[in-house]
Please model this.
Amino acid sequence: MPFQDPYQQAKLAGASEVRSDSAPEASPDFFHKLPMRTILPFINGGIAGIIATTLVQPIDMIKVRLQLSGEASKSGFTTSPISVFRDITSTGKLIDLYTGISAGILRQAVYTTARLGLFDTTVGFLTVKASEQHRSINFKERASAGLMAGGFAAMLGNPADLALIRMQSDSLKPIHERQNHRHALSALKDIARSEGLVALWAGATPTVARAMALNFGQLTFFYEAKHILKDAGLTSQSQTVGALAIAGFFASFFSLPFDFVKTRLQKQVSNEDGKLPYKSMSDCFEKVAREEGILSFYRGFSTYYGRIAPHAIWLEVCRSNVSIDENSTYRITFQPFFQDNIR
Model:
């Protein structure tokens, strides 16, 4: 039996219209062919991720600085979002809030492309399978898809994530220790040359754990929350905004400790003795908990949540309005993304 992609199967399975035999059959074009239809979810996920990240990059910059504030406090580094904002822009350059944007874009091109592409594709297959069993896809299946997609994508995107952290934290170092990376590729090249190729996957364990926790909270709870809010009779707009807010909270709560440790591990470099401050994820957890307190893992929660929720909203806006589909090479539409159907 020839292979069919899940979206075409779902479309055929759920079709309620019967096509007339006399209706002309459209000839398949490039976007109707299986290989292209298979990678469309990945392309659209990457496009949406890049746009969303560009819009929220300043918040991410502040979040990273807050997470490193425990290490930098001895040198007088400030620890509130407002004071961090002032510190970054003290030279009068708002563009400094976009430090590391090239690495952020590269990360989205790899991580979000894989994350959303794998999630959408996996959910598509599971939806078809569930439909054949005359049921709807359940929470466990969505959660499994989210965990798998997040973990695999995070491993692929770790080098870009590492470059982003290094670029965002560079100005915290003494002037003579700064690397002054020009862009993401320059940072990756410098890290690989000075620390070895394997160093590009520094902090990969908490990065994968963070991504799995983030996907579990964000992608899984979004659909579940939207179903609940829809059953409660809320309007379409309220359903989407409410579901994104709820999913963003759970995503932030589950993933922030791992994000905190990831930032610390990826920022660290060997000292004069050739030793790293933290040996592993567990060592970082232990030392931070002992020296800075358990609650330090949730330092900057409001900023982190303030980054996660807007990013999720812009991601949905972009996925709904800027994408490539099987009927056209490219489309930009401006219809409301708040749809009555649960996407």
